[in-house]
Amino acid sequence: MQGLQKLLVVGVFLIIVYNLGAALWYMYNKQGDEKRTVNALTRRIAVSVGLILVIAVLLYTGVLESHGIRVGR
User: Is the pTM of this model over 0.85?
Assistant: First the structure.
């Protein structure tokens, strides 16, 4: 099960990087209007926030475990 979780996180991360690259491509090549760049950046932010929320819920429910670094000592 952990392998599937890692693949899911890596897949979502690749989607985030793709959207960032698409926004850069649209901005650099001036294809179309600015709306395509803004939409790509909006998708990147939405997917990033979604990934953070999913990881937080998985940590809270115990499905995902932290690696054991203690804060403060």
Answer: no
Predicted local distance difference test score (pLDDT) of residue 13? 92
Report the C-alpha gap between 12 and 17 in whole angstroms.
9
Question: Largest Cα–Cα distance in the chain?
Answer: 54
73 DSSP assignment:
-
Compute the residue count for the chain: 73
How many other β-carbons are positioned within 10 Å of the β-carbon of residue 37? 19
User: What's the Cα-to-Cα distance from 57 to each of 10, 22, 24, 50, 70, rounded to whole Å?
Assistant: 17, 29, 31, 11, 20
SS3 per residue for 23-72: HHHHHHHCCCCHHHHHHHHHHHHHHHHHHHHHHHHHHHHCCCCCCCCCCC
Q: How far is CA 56 from the centre of its chain?
A: 13
Listed by start position, the domains of the chain span 2-60
